[in-house]
């Protein structure tokens, strides 16, 4: 899987590249508009992550360029502007997702995966982790080929975990993923805890292992060792 | 009070004073002239009468005396030596058949060796009529003057003050969010031209300030986000490293602080946007449906906390409101009522035509109730919250002239928002 990151901020770019590379993606980095145009012209990517504000141009133009090339890349906008107009404009010209700075790398990673899954047009697309099989399109989960009934939040939580395997995922990151801005952080931890409790219980009831590790005071880690 | 009414009031007061003083003066002057004339006439009659009595044997066919004047001639034995004396008195007038003022001239004289006391009485009536006539004329003039001044004033007001009204009209329509320069035609009145220029300058300045502030707000929030993202992501990367638990905890604190700063900035820039009137697009919002739809977003939290939701819709007001702000307000209110609730508590929502009350069970906030609406005031628990939620609610309420009241009593938090004035304002806008 090839990913192109268009981001002028060095430190930010480094973190994103490092995080995504560890996920097994092949990542390239364009620091400005002209490099981005060059790269999108020359190569094809599964996913392009674009910052809107670039020193020599607008990230939206990069997206328009991709659309002109009839590129099949998934496109995620990262922007410092949390404005509805920007969001609508970005999605209008063909971006698949829009994420506002500052974001969690785990969140970006989950969204990249979701975009790539959607772009692959494979309805049979499954995410398999050991005995757990997730079908994102049907929003169904089975363990040992046995269907498990999960609530929407439990399902989202499980997919988020599987997308960020072997990573410490902070409580904040989970809260934001599940509830967005609607929720005050302080409350959400209790809610995360009860969702997790239920999710663990359901997985174990179906003979699955408990892969959710608690990292005390920080968050959780989904891991098989 | 309108300028015209005030000007007219001053004109009227001046006219009354001038009229009263003028009438009094005219009355006194006329009275003294007439008095003198009367006396002269009486003395002339005396001379004429004496002349006639002395020179003719009998009374003449023609007297040069005024009709209505009464002449009494009494013969006396000795010379009484009465000098001509004027007396004002009231006597019965057989013509008018009532008591009327008269002036008497009494004198004695010797006519053909006989002594007489003669009194000539002259009715003062015609003169009083004259006085009344004078007053009527004065009053008439005053009235005409008043009417013509009033009309003139109205005309001047319309014609001369036209640019002024034009300016006021345009200022009424002016909106900082959709700024347009004033389009006022130059006037030949210097003061209005001055006013126009000063206003033009002021408006350009405020448009400029508004834009600058708006840009500043947008830029700050934009510029802050990137470094915040770097801090957050670097911390997140560090969390993946095999650090000791103590080190991980330190890093996690950096991570948390960055998140809090970001939320804080988000809240503050929302407040600034409200203060800057950047949410101007309003639409009619059916409150009941709006609350229901927002509430459904909290279903899960309500369930998890085991809360009972008690809905009492007694009315379904439709408010003209910015959709974004209504969303923020209702979301904040509901989220607060869940956050500050107790396990297995209750949320009660009462909606009537005039107000919205959201009550919830909860612990004593331990703060003076009014100060809860201030920025960054929060009760002890919930350290992660920004403390901006209630001040955002308050600011939105203020913007729409709604009153908001918070009370805590017997284990119940109660927020009451009254939108009487909001509806009232809408009516006024429509007019």
From TrEMBL, chain A:
Keyword terms, alphabetized: DNA-binding, Phosphoprotein, Transcription, Transcription regulation, Two-component regulatory system
Occurrences of domain OmpR/PhoB-type (ranges): 124-224
Post-translational modification 4-aspartylphosphate, affected residues: 51
DNA-binding region, residue intervals: 124-224
Domain Response regulatory per the UniProt entry, residue ranges: 2-116
Keyword Phosphoprotein carried by entry: yes
UniProt protein name: Response regulator transcription factor
Naturally occurring in which organism (per UniProt): Marinoscillum luteum
């Amino acid at each position: 899987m090839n990913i192109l990151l268009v981001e002028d901020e060095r430190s930010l770019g480094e973190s994103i590249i490092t995080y995504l590379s560890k996920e097994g993606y092949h990542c390239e980095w364009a620091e400005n508009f002209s490099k981005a145009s060059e790269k999108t012209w020359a190569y094809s990517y599964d996913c392009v992550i674009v910052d809107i504000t670039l020193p020599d141009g607008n990230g939206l133009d990069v997206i328009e360029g991709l659309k002109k090339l009839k590129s099949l890349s998934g496109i995620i906008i990262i922007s410092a502007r949390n404005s509805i107009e920007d969001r609508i404009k970005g999605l209008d010209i063909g971006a698949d997702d829009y994420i506002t700075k500052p974001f969690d790398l785990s969140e970006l990673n989950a969204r990249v995966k979701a975009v790539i899954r959607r772009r692959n047009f494979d309805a049979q697309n499954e995410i398999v982790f050991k005995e757990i099989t997730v079908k994102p399109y049907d929003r169904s989960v089975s363990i040992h080929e046995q269907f498990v009934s999960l609530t929407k939040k439990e399902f989202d939580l499980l997919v988020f975990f599987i997308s960020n395997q072997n990573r410490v995922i902070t409580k904040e990151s989970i809260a934001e993923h599940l509830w967005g801005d609607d929720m005050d952080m302080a409350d959400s931890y209790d809610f995360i805890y009860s969702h997790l409790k239920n999710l663990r219980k359901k997985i174990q009831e179906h003979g699955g292992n408990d892969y959710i590790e608690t990292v005390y005071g920080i968050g959780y880690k989904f891991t098989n060792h | 009070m309108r300028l015209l009414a005030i000007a007219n009031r001053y004109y009227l007061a001046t006219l009354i004073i001038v009229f009263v003083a003028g009438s009094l003066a005219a009355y006194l002057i006329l009275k003294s002239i007439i008095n003198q004339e009367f006396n002269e006439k009486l003395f002339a009659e005396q001379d004429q009468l004496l002349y006639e009595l002395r020179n003719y044997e009998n009374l003449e066919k023609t007297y040069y005396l005024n009709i209505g004047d009464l002449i009494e001639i009494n013969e006396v034995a000795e010379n009484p030596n009465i000098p001509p004396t004027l007396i004002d008195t009231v006597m019965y007038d057989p013509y008018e058949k009532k008591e009327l003022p008269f002036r008497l001239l009494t004198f004695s004289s010797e006519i053909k060796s006989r002594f007489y006391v003669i009194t000539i009485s002259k009715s003062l009536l015609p003169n009083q009529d004259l006085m009344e006539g004078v007053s009527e004329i004065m009053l008439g003039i005053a009235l005409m003057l008043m009417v013509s001044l009033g009309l003139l004033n109205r005309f001047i007001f319309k014609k001369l003050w036209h640019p002024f009204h034009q300016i006021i009209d345009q200022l009424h329509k002016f909106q900082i969010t959709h700024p347009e320069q004033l389009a006022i035609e130059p006037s030949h009145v210097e003061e209005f031209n001055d006013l126009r220029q000063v206003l033009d300058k002021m408006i350009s300045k405020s448009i400029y300030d508004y834009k600058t502030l708006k840009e500043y707000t947008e830029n700050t929030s934009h510029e802050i986000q990137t470094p915040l993202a770097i801090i957050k992501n670097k911390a997140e990367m560090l969390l993946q490293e095999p650090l000791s638990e103590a080190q991980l905890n330190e890093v996690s604190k950096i991570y948390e602080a960055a998140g809090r700063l970001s939320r804080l900035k988000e809240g503050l820039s929302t407040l600034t946007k409200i203060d800057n009137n950047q949410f101007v697009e309003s639409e009619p919002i059916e409150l009941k449906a709006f609350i229901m739809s927002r509430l459904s977003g909290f279903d899960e939290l309500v369930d998890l906390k085991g809360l009972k939701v008690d809905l009492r819709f007694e009315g379904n007001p439709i408010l003209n409101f910015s959709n974004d702000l209504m969303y923020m307000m209702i979301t904040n209110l509901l989220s607060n009522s869940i956050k500050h609730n107790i396990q297995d508590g209750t949320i009660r929502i009462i909606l009537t035509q005039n107000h919205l009350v959201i009550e919830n069970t909860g612990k004593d906030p331990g703060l003076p109730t009014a100060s809860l609406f201030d920025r960054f005031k929060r009760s002890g628990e919930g350290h992660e919250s920004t403390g901006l939620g209630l001040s955002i609610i308050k600011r939105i309420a203020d913007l729409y002239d709604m009153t908001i009241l918070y009370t805590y009593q017997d284990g119940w938090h109660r927020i009451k928002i009254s939108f009487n004035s909001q509806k009232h304002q809408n009516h006024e806008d429509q007019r």
